[in-house]
Amino acid sequence: MNILKLIIILLFSITNGVSAMESMMGNISLNDQTYKSLNIMGTAKLNNVIIEEDLKVVGPSELKNNCKIQGSVNLIGPLKATGIVINSGKVVGPFEATDLNVEKELLLVGPVECKRCKFNSQLVITAKKCTFKDSELASLLVKEDGEKKKQYVYLEGKTVVHGDVVVEQADAEVVVEKGARVEGKIIKGKK
């Protein structure tokens, strides 16, 4: 077993005092079930699944049709989410969501595309491009990613940001299309 795989297994075995974390490997497809906590290494396809505590996935994930993660989500790999509720968490990889509801802070690292999503607390993103269409955000922080390429934030349709849009990169572009609005300020970093 190579050392990286061993490290990942060890990281996923730490449950922070939570018992009954179920671990799975491979192409996992789960439907219409409830779990206390899930830990998946491989492809995760969850349909109408309730996770009472935490979901951890290393690999591509597809969550849809009334999935509810009541604890935190920690995903490494692309996520496609449709019609789900997330409490809080972190996703490292491309993030594509439709009809998503996030209760607390979410950290996203990678390109973001959201349609009809609601973020009830601050959304923190590190990405070159993030697009929100017909979505609602409490506030948005776009962190610099260390590369010299320009970052873009697109607010489309009837998207509303109730607080500030803070973009750390000085020359980032924030595009607020007709119909979208920012109720707070658009704040860019200093050169």
What does this structure look like?
With 191 residues, the chain is mainly beta. The protein folds into two domains: 1-12 and 19-83, no CATH class; 94-191. Helices cover 6% and strands 55% of the residues. It is built from one helix and 24 strands. It has a 15-stranded parallel sheet that branches. Strands 2-5-8-10-12-15-17-19-22 form a nine-stranded parallel sheet, with no helix packed on it. The longest helix is centred in the N-terminal third of the chain and has 11 residues, at 3-13.
Number of domains: 2
Q: Calculate the terminal CA-CA distance, rounded to whole Å.
A: 47 Å
Please tell me what the overall shape is: globular
Structural class: mainly beta
Largest sheet features = 15 strands, parallel
Query: Quick one: how many beta strands?
Result: 24
